[in-house]
Amino acid sequence: MDNTKKEIDFCVSIDGNLVFEVKPKITQEEIISTVKKIREKLIKLNLDRDLIYNVYDVCIEMLQNILKYSYGSKIYEGNIREADGVFKIIYDKKLKKFIITSTNLIHKEQIQIIKERIEEIENLDNKQLRKLIRSKIKSKKDGHKDGAGLGFATIATRISEPIKINFEQVLDNILKYSITVIIREVV
Amino acid sequence: MNNLYIEDKEDTPKVVLDYENNLIEINGECYPENTFEFFEPILEWLNNYFKTNPEKTTVNFKLSYFNSSTTQVLFDIFDIFDENNNENLIINWFYDKNNKGTLKDYEEFSEEFEDLNIKAVEK
Predict the structure, then answer these.
(1) Hey, are the CB atoms on B108 and A137 less than 8 Å from each other?
(2) What pTM was computed for the model?
(3) Residue B78: its chain A contacts at CB < 8 A?
(4) Fewest CB within 10 angstroms: A31, A46, B89, B111, which?
């Protein structure tokens, strides 16, 4: 590995044919343990507290998105969820930036929702994003039992470049969905 | 009316809803798997509490981190404060001076709920 990069891998194992094979499965417990480890590593790197907060927040939002929206996620007794997905965070010391990616399967019906959410935050500055979040909360337009549909807008307030998304068909109705965000040390 | 105490976990805050001492305190991080399930008893307690017409209430928000689902519920909580607002309701929002995010959150809520007396308190 390039010694200018620190990689923190959380579950990376993909069966190229049809489905993900991920170990460990993503659960809330895994998320807690993962973000805790990430924060500890970032604190050791002596990074700015605001930057650590932004990275921490984005990691939680992206991991919880996998848990909540991944195709094939299961809910067990006690309302415990488990999902398949890939999450990776790379810190490039040389370029002073974080590259955070998550990948999971979705049903094709979710594409339109994701595209709409991305379109509504495009070209908005931080102030406009916060205004959008407030108006979504008040109207509860995209609200549901898992949240208010604020994830993308919240992530957008923390990052340095527009969110990149990618869809790749794996079955008739099932797609591999990836999201990549970049957080720079100096915004 | 009973008090309600919830011990903190890594992804949920410590909650103190103390009827006898008119104290409402939420302290820690908040990003539970089932946000609405976690906050349901809290919202219910708050609605019942304000029906008792408390003389003076102190609210201490000491949330060091909360996710987007929690943001929505916090707005619901502040809506309850807003509906029951009077000069005896004091809300303290604790922020970390080294973390602009927590101060921005304070600004967000104090702008949105401008009739409430929300004080920023440095940790």
Answers:
(1) no
(2) 0.89
(3) none
(4) A46
